[in-house]
Design goal:
Number of helices: 7
Helix content: 25-40%
CATH topology of the largest domain: D-amino Acid Aminotransferase, Chain A, domain 1
Order of helices and strands: EEEEEHEHEEEHEEEEHHEEEHH
Number of strands: 16
Shape: globular
Strand content: 15-25%
Largest sheet: 7 strands, antiparallel
CATH class of the largest domain: Alpha Beta
Number of domains: 2
Length: about 290
Protein backbone atom coordinates (compact mmCIF):
# COMPACT_ATOMS: atom_id res chain seq x y z
CA UNK A 1 0.00 0.00 0.00
CA UNK A 2 1.35 3.41 -0.91
CA UNK A 3 1.68 6.32 1.50
CA UNK A 4 -0.82 8.31 -0.58
CA UNK A 5 -3.46 7.97 2.12
CA UNK A 6 -1.53 9.91 4.72
CA UNK A 7 -1.80 13.13 2.78
CA UNK A 8 -5.44 12.66 1.70
CA UNK A 9 -7.35 11.52 4.77
CA UNK A 10 -8.50 14.69 6.56
CA UNK A 11 -7.86 13.46 10.11
CA UNK A 12 -4.94 13.99 12.47
CA UNK A 13 -2.63 11.03 11.98
CA UNK A 14 -0.13 9.19 14.12
CA UNK A 15 2.32 7.25 12.05
CA UNK A 16 4.10 4.25 13.50
CA UNK A 17 6.78 2.17 11.85
CA UNK A 18 4.27 -0.04 10.10
CA UNK A 19 0.79 1.33 10.89
CA UNK A 20 -1.07 4.59 10.49
CA UNK A 21 -3.73 5.79 12.95
CA UNK A 22 -6.44 8.26 11.96
CA UNK A 23 -8.69 10.08 14.42
CA UNK A 24 -12.39 9.75 13.58
CA UNK A 25 -13.56 11.71 16.61
CA UNK A 26 -15.05 9.08 18.90
CA UNK A 27 -13.21 6.23 17.14
CA UNK A 28 -9.91 5.48 15.44
CA UNK A 29 -9.11 4.04 12.03
CA UNK A 30 -6.09 1.72 12.12
CA UNK A 31 -4.42 0.97 8.80
CA UNK A 32 -1.74 -1.70 8.61
CA UNK A 33 0.60 -0.79 5.77
CA UNK A 34 3.02 -3.09 3.99
CA UNK A 35 5.99 -1.33 5.54
CA UNK A 36 8.40 -3.57 7.42
CA UNK A 37 10.92 -2.63 10.09
CA UNK A 38 14.05 -4.29 11.42
CA UNK A 39 16.60 -3.16 13.97
CA UNK A 40 14.39 -0.11 14.65
CA UNK A 41 14.54 1.05 11.01
CA UNK A 42 11.77 1.01 8.40
CA UNK A 43 12.99 -0.66 5.23
CA UNK A 44 12.93 1.31 1.94
CA UNK A 45 10.54 -1.23 0.40
CA UNK A 46 7.81 -3.28 2.01
CA UNK A 47 6.28 -6.76 1.84
CA UNK A 48 3.22 -7.00 -0.44
CA UNK A 49 0.01 -7.87 1.47
CA UNK A 50 1.76 -7.83 4.85
CA UNK A 51 -0.73 -5.35 6.31
CA UNK A 52 -3.72 -7.39 5.17
CA UNK A 53 -2.25 -10.64 6.48
CA UNK A 54 -1.48 -9.25 9.93
CA UNK A 55 -4.85 -7.49 10.20
CA UNK A 56 -6.69 -10.70 9.34
CA UNK A 57 -4.62 -12.73 11.81
CA UNK A 58 -5.50 -10.24 14.56
CA UNK A 59 -9.18 -10.32 13.58
CA UNK A 60 -9.11 -14.12 13.70
CA UNK A 61 -7.71 -14.15 17.25
CA UNK A 62 -10.10 -11.45 18.51
CA UNK A 63 -13.02 -13.59 17.29
CA UNK A 64 -11.62 -16.90 18.54
CA UNK A 65 -10.55 -15.81 22.01
CA UNK A 66 -13.64 -13.83 22.96
CA UNK A 67 -11.67 -11.28 24.99
CA UNK A 68 -13.05 -7.74 25.41
CA UNK A 69 -11.20 -5.72 22.79
CA UNK A 70 -11.15 -2.50 20.82
CA UNK A 71 -12.53 -3.73 17.48
CA UNK A 72 -15.77 -2.15 16.26
CA UNK A 73 -15.77 -3.16 12.61
CA UNK A 74 -13.73 -3.93 9.52
CA UNK A 75 -16.58 -2.71 7.31
CA UNK A 76 -15.59 0.64 5.82
CA UNK A 77 -18.65 0.99 3.56
CA UNK A 78 -20.24 3.70 5.72
CA UNK A 79 -17.00 5.52 6.45
CA UNK A 80 -16.85 8.96 4.84
CA UNK A 81 -13.62 9.32 2.91
CA UNK A 82 -12.35 11.85 0.39
CA UNK A 83 -13.31 10.92 -3.17
CA UNK A 84 -9.68 10.59 -4.19
CA UNK A 85 -8.96 7.87 -1.62
CA UNK A 86 -8.99 4.37 -3.11
CA UNK A 87 -11.16 2.30 -0.74
CA UNK A 88 -9.84 -0.91 -2.24
CA UNK A 89 -6.43 -0.11 -0.80
CA UNK A 90 -7.96 -0.08 2.67
CA UNK A 91 -9.99 -3.29 2.47
CA UNK A 92 -8.63 -6.09 4.63
CA UNK A 93 -5.91 -3.97 6.24
CA UNK A 94 -8.11 -1.59 8.25
CA UNK A 95 -10.05 -1.67 11.49
CA UNK A 96 -12.37 0.87 13.07
CA UNK A 97 -11.67 0.65 16.78
CA UNK A 98 -12.67 2.15 20.10
CA UNK A 99 -10.49 4.81 21.62
CA UNK A 100 -8.75 3.62 24.75
CA UNK A 101 -6.34 5.01 27.30
CA UNK A 102 -3.28 2.86 26.70
CA UNK A 103 -1.72 1.16 29.73
CA UNK A 104 1.99 2.16 29.57
CA UNK A 105 3.29 -1.43 29.80
CA UNK A 106 4.05 -4.06 27.19
CA UNK A 107 2.55 -7.26 28.60
CA UNK A 108 5.00 -9.90 27.43
CA UNK A 109 4.35 -13.60 28.01
CA UNK A 110 7.04 -16.21 27.35
CA UNK A 111 6.54 -19.93 26.99
CA UNK A 112 10.00 -20.56 25.57
CA UNK A 113 13.40 -19.01 26.27
CA UNK A 114 14.70 -16.85 23.43
CA UNK A 115 15.48 -13.25 22.52
CA UNK A 116 16.12 -10.80 25.34
CA UNK A 117 14.87 -13.40 27.85
CA UNK A 118 17.58 -15.85 26.77
CA UNK A 119 20.22 -13.11 27.10
CA UNK A 120 19.03 -12.27 30.62
CA UNK A 121 18.94 -15.92 31.64
CA UNK A 122 22.50 -16.53 30.44
CA UNK A 123 23.69 -13.56 32.46
CA UNK A 124 21.73 -14.08 35.69
CA UNK A 125 19.58 -17.21 35.60
CA UNK A 126 16.54 -14.92 35.72
CA UNK A 127 14.15 -13.15 33.37
CA UNK A 128 12.63 -9.91 34.64
CA UNK A 129 13.39 -10.97 38.21
CA UNK A 130 11.86 -14.44 37.80
CA UNK A 131 14.22 -17.23 38.84
CA UNK A 132 14.33 -20.03 36.25
CA UNK A 133 15.66 -23.61 36.57
CA UNK A 134 19.37 -24.12 35.83
CA UNK A 135 20.53 -25.86 32.69
CA UNK A 136 18.06 -24.36 30.22
CA UNK A 137 19.27 -23.86 26.66
CA UNK A 138 18.28 -21.45 23.93
CA UNK A 139 14.61 -21.98 23.00
CA UNK A 140 13.93 -24.35 25.92
CA UNK A 141 10.26 -24.70 26.76
CA UNK A 142 9.70 -23.19 30.19
CA UNK A 143 8.05 -25.26 32.95
CA UNK A 144 5.13 -22.85 32.70
CA UNK A 145 4.58 -19.54 30.87
CA UNK A 146 5.97 -16.47 32.61
CA UNK A 147 4.82 -12.85 32.54
CA UNK A 148 7.71 -10.47 31.83
CA UNK A 149 6.56 -6.86 31.47
CA UNK A 150 8.43 -4.15 29.62
CA UNK A 151 8.18 -0.39 29.45
CA UNK A 152 6.73 1.19 26.30
CA UNK A 153 9.43 3.31 24.68
CA UNK A 154 8.72 5.89 21.97
CA UNK A 155 12.05 5.15 20.30
CA UNK A 156 14.38 2.16 20.45
CA UNK A 157 13.68 -1.11 22.21
CA UNK A 158 11.27 -1.57 25.10
CA UNK A 159 13.00 -2.18 28.42
CA UNK A 160 12.31 -5.33 30.46
CA UNK A 161 11.26 -4.60 34.05
CA UNK A 162 10.33 -6.67 37.08
CA UNK A 163 6.72 -7.19 38.11
CA UNK A 164 7.45 -5.10 41.19
CA UNK A 165 8.48 -2.19 38.96
CA UNK A 166 5.30 -2.63 36.95
CA UNK A 167 3.30 -2.35 40.18
CA UNK A 168 5.01 0.99 40.83
CA UNK A 169 3.98 2.22 37.37
CA UNK A 170 0.35 1.05 37.12
CA UNK A 171 -0.63 0.04 40.65
CA UNK A 172 -1.07 -3.32 42.35
CA UNK A 173 -4.61 -4.19 41.23
CA UNK A 174 -4.02 -3.30 37.58
CA UNK A 175 -0.67 -5.11 37.47
CA UNK A 176 -2.17 -8.32 38.83
CA UNK A 177 -5.17 -8.09 36.49
CA UNK A 178 -2.94 -7.59 33.45
CA UNK A 179 -0.69 -10.48 34.42
CA UNK A 180 -3.64 -12.81 34.94
CA UNK A 181 -5.38 -11.83 31.71
CA UNK A 182 -2.22 -11.90 29.59
CA UNK A 183 -1.26 -15.37 30.81
CA UNK A 184 -4.78 -16.62 30.17
CA UNK A 185 -4.92 -15.28 26.59
CA UNK A 186 -1.45 -16.60 25.78
CA UNK A 187 -2.14 -20.05 27.22
CA UNK A 188 -5.36 -20.50 25.27
CA UNK A 189 -3.82 -19.18 22.05
CA UNK A 190 -0.77 -21.39 22.49
CA UNK A 191 -2.85 -24.54 22.79
CA UNK A 192 -4.86 -23.68 19.70
CA UNK A 193 -1.78 -22.77 17.64
CA UNK A 194 -0.04 -25.99 18.66
CA UNK A 195 -3.01 -27.93 17.26
CA UNK A 196 -2.32 -26.13 13.96
CA UNK A 197 1.38 -26.95 13.94
CA UNK A 198 2.70 -23.63 15.27
CA UNK A 199 4.50 -22.98 18.55
CA UNK A 200 3.94 -19.48 19.96
CA UNK A 201 7.22 -19.01 21.77
CA UNK A 202 6.34 -15.62 23.20
CA UNK A 203 4.12 -12.65 22.51
CA UNK A 204 3.32 -9.16 23.69
CA UNK A 205 -0.09 -7.71 24.41
CA UNK A 206 -1.26 -4.14 24.78
CA UNK A 207 -4.20 -3.25 26.97
CA UNK A 208 -6.15 -0.05 27.42
CA UNK A 209 -8.96 1.46 29.47
CA UNK A 210 -12.36 1.97 27.84
CA UNK A 211 -15.41 2.98 29.88
CA UNK A 212 -13.65 1.84 33.05
CA UNK A 213 -12.77 -1.61 31.69
CA UNK A 214 -9.48 -3.12 30.52
CA UNK A 215 -9.69 -4.18 26.89
CA UNK A 216 -7.20 -5.81 24.54
CA UNK A 217 -5.97 -3.35 21.92
CA UNK A 218 -3.54 -3.05 19.02
CA UNK A 219 -2.54 -6.11 16.99
CA UNK A 220 -2.67 -9.45 18.75
CA UNK A 221 -0.76 -12.71 18.30
CA UNK A 222 0.70 -11.92 14.88
CA UNK A 223 4.17 -12.83 13.56
CA UNK A 224 5.14 -9.20 14.20
CA UNK A 225 4.17 -9.24 17.89
CA UNK A 226 5.09 -12.86 18.60
CA UNK A 227 7.62 -15.57 17.82
CA UNK A 228 5.93 -18.27 15.75
CA UNK A 229 7.89 -21.49 15.20
CA UNK A 230 6.93 -24.55 13.11
CA UNK A 231 6.25 -27.30 15.65
CA UNK A 232 7.59 -30.08 13.46
CA UNK A 233 11.02 -28.41 13.24
CA UNK A 234 11.44 -27.47 16.89
CA UNK A 235 14.88 -28.33 18.29
CA UNK A 236 15.93 -26.68 21.58
CA UNK A 237 19.53 -25.56 21.90
CA UNK A 238 19.59 -23.43 18.76
CA UNK A 239 17.76 -20.67 16.96
CA UNK A 240 14.47 -21.82 15.42
CA UNK A 241 13.05 -21.24 11.95
CA UNK A 242 10.24 -18.75 12.25
CA UNK A 243 7.24 -17.21 10.53
CA UNK A 244 8.27 -13.60 11.01
CA UNK A 245 10.69 -11.16 9.38
CA UNK A 246 13.75 -13.25 10.18
CA UNK A 247 14.60 -13.43 6.46
CA UNK A 248 14.90 -9.65 6.50
CA UNK A 249 17.09 -9.58 9.60
CA UNK A 250 19.30 -12.40 8.34
CA UNK A 251 19.86 -10.71 4.98
CA UNK A 252 20.63 -7.36 6.61
CA UNK A 253 23.29 -9.02 8.76
CA UNK A 254 25.13 -10.07 5.59
CA UNK A 255 25.20 -6.62 3.99
CA UNK A 256 27.64 -4.78 6.24
CA UNK A 257 24.93 -2.25 7.08
CA UNK A 258 25.91 -0.33 10.23
CA UNK A 259 22.31 -0.11 11.64
CA UNK A 260 22.81 3.60 12.29
CA UNK A 261 22.20 4.91 8.76
CA UNK A 262 19.32 4.33 6.32
CA UNK A 263 19.09 0.61 5.46
CA UNK A 264 19.55 -0.87 1.98
CA UNK A 265 16.65 -1.89 -0.25
CA UNK A 266 15.46 -5.46 0.22
CA UNK A 267 16.14 -7.74 -2.76
CA UNK A 268 13.21 -9.45 -4.48
CA UNK A 269 14.01 -12.92 -3.13
CA UNK A 270 13.96 -11.68 0.48
CA UNK A 271 10.65 -9.91 -0.11
CA UNK A 272 9.12 -13.02 -1.69
CA UNK A 273 10.32 -15.42 1.02
CA UNK A 274 9.18 -13.10 3.83
CA UNK A 275 5.72 -12.76 2.27
CA UNK A 276 5.50 -16.54 1.92
CA UNK A 277 6.14 -17.02 5.66
CA UNK A 278 3.46 -14.49 6.62
CA UNK A 279 0.97 -16.20 4.30
CA UNK A 280 1.87 -19.63 5.68
CA UNK A 281 1.30 -18.44 9.25
CA UNK A 282 -2.13 -17.09 8.30
CA UNK A 283 -3.17 -20.22 6.48
CA UNK A 284 -1.96 -22.60 9.18
CA UNK A 285 -3.72 -20.69 11.95
CA UNK A 286 -7.02 -19.99 10.19
CA UNK A 287 -7.32 -23.02 7.94
CA UNK A 288 -8.21 -20.62 5.11
CA UNK A 289 -6.37 -19.78 1.92
CA UNK A 290 -5.07 -16.24 1.69
CA UNK A 291 -6.03 -14.47 -1.52
Amino acid sequence: MSDFLASNLPFPVRRGKVRDVYDLGDRLLLIATDRISAFDWVMPNGIPDKGRILTQISAFWFDLLGVSNHVISQDLSNLKLPAEVNREELVGRSMIVRKAQVVPIECVVRGYLDGSGWKEYKASGQVCGIELPPGLVQCSQLPEPIFTPATKEETGHDINVSFEKMVEIVGDDVAHALRRRSLDVYSRAREYARSRGILIADTKFEWGWHDGNLILIDEVLTPDSSRFWPADRYQPGQAQPSYDKQFVRDWLETTGWDKSSPPPKLPKEVVVRTREKYVEAYERLTGKQFS
